[in-house]
Amino acid sequence: MGDGLLNAEGQTVTPVRRMGRFTLSRFLPAFHPDAENHIGETITDEDGRTAYLKTFRLSAAQTRWGHLLSQLAATDWDLDASAAALRTDRDGLVGRLDRAGFGHLLRPDIIDAPHRRH
Prior knowledge:
Helices cover 39% and strands 26% of the residues. The chain is built from five helices and four strands. The chain is an alpha+beta fold. It has a four-stranded antiparallel β-sheet, with no helix packed on it.
């Protein structure tokens, strides 16, 4: 495991299930493009000691996809707010989503709008 997991600044940890004295949690990185990024899960006891840890190192492309989706989630899928956070405009964001393979998540009229304007 590299610095992406050990220096996990901005990492999001979500407790998923509690069974007896153990807690299953899942974690996501902050999706920094210049760092090693890991997703995974951990089981800890009531004292916070790790009983189980499973991680997956993300590729550069997976990190970019995660960053894009996390920005959309942070703005509750407001395309204009997400575009501003990503320093682009709405058409740029729609194109980026489409090129990343996420065009199916948007209504067809939103995908087609930039093409009609240009």
